[in-house]
Amino acid sequence: MTGNPLRPGLALLILVAGHLFATIFMRNLGAGIDDIADPSAARLARGFYSVFQFIMLHITPFLVAFLLFIIYRVWRGKDAQWGIDILGGVLTLRCFIIFILLNLLLLSQLRAGGLLLMQLILFLPVVTLNFGWLYWRLDTGARIKGERHVRFAEDDDSPSPFDYFHIATRTLLQFEPSGASAVSKTMKTLFVIHGIMMLDLVALTLSRAISLASGG
Q1: What is the number of other CB atoms lying within 10 angstroms of the CB of residue 103?
Q2: b/e for 106-115, b at 16 or more Cβ within 10 A?
Q3: Which has the closest alpha carbon to 97: 40, 29, 174?
Q4: Residue 84 CB contacts under 8 Å (≥ 6 apart), including other chains
Q5: In Å, what is the CA distance from 145 to each residue of 1, 75, 141, 155, 215?
Q6: Listed residue (38, 51, 20, 2) closest to 130, CA to CA
Q7: Cα(58)–Cα(216) distance, integer angstroms
Q8: Is residue 25 within 8 Å of residue 119, measured between CB atoms?
Q9: How many CB atoms are closer than 10 A to CB 187?
């Protein structure tokens, strides 16, 4: 491989986009908490949102400074992979928190359907960008060392970032990554987790639709 196959500038852009969608998800949740009829679910959602507000109010300046520092290092061609990995790890954590909140909304009685629809729409880019980055980061890092985590159906020595995000995008429709197979236990586990998350959302969304159609 020539150059840096991890492409820090592109990785940074993708992760920032994922964090942006995750932030919009939480802001939309805060605006719609009153639409959650179940008191316990509303209390839990309000707790998560309070933590989000605290972070936005007190920690955001430090996060912005950290992001600018990473951007500066990428722009100057210096090693910034450790910082990008931190951003990726935080996005993964936010993705799973959002997944829990979305399950909470799907299982709760809502006074209006607009909140649930918007949260579902916002979750899709978060989960796709997050898992696409995870596949790309782990497999490309392994290939640099002469190993691999993923074997593509039409494999070559230098898969592009698009190939990894294509895997993550197809999982939205097929509930498991297709067009590639996992080689390592780590990647097999990620494939299973990703597929379970998507299947869970589809099943709960379908059950909610059936409930509404039957007047429940």
Answers
A1: 14
A2: bebebeeeeb
A3: 29
A4: 6, 8, 11, 12, 15, 70
A5: 11, 25, 7, 17, 57
A6: 20
A7: 42
A8: yes
A9: 22
Torsion of CA 21, 174, 200, 121, to 10 degrees: 30
Contacts of 166 (CB under 8 A, 6+ apart): 179
DSSP letters of 118-168? HHHHHHHHHHHHHHHHHHHHHHHHHHHTT--SEEETT--SS--HHHHHHHH
* pLDDT tens digits along 134-177: 999 999 999 888 898 988 877 666 788 888 998 888 887 776 67
Residue type at position 147: E
CA atoms within 13 A on the CB side of 20: 8
Q: Which residue has the tokens 């605290």?
A: 54
Domain layout of the chain by residue ranges: 8-213
In this predicted model, what pLDDT tens digit does every residue of 41-67 receive, in sequence order?
889 999 999 999 999 989 989 999 999
Q: pTM, whole model, 2 decimals? A: 0.89
Q: Are strands 150-152 and 180-182 parallel, antiparallel or unpaired?
A: antiparallel
160/7 Cα distance (integer angstroms)? 10
Please measure the distance between the N-terminal and C-terminal CA atoms of the chain and give it in whole angstroms.
Answer: 57
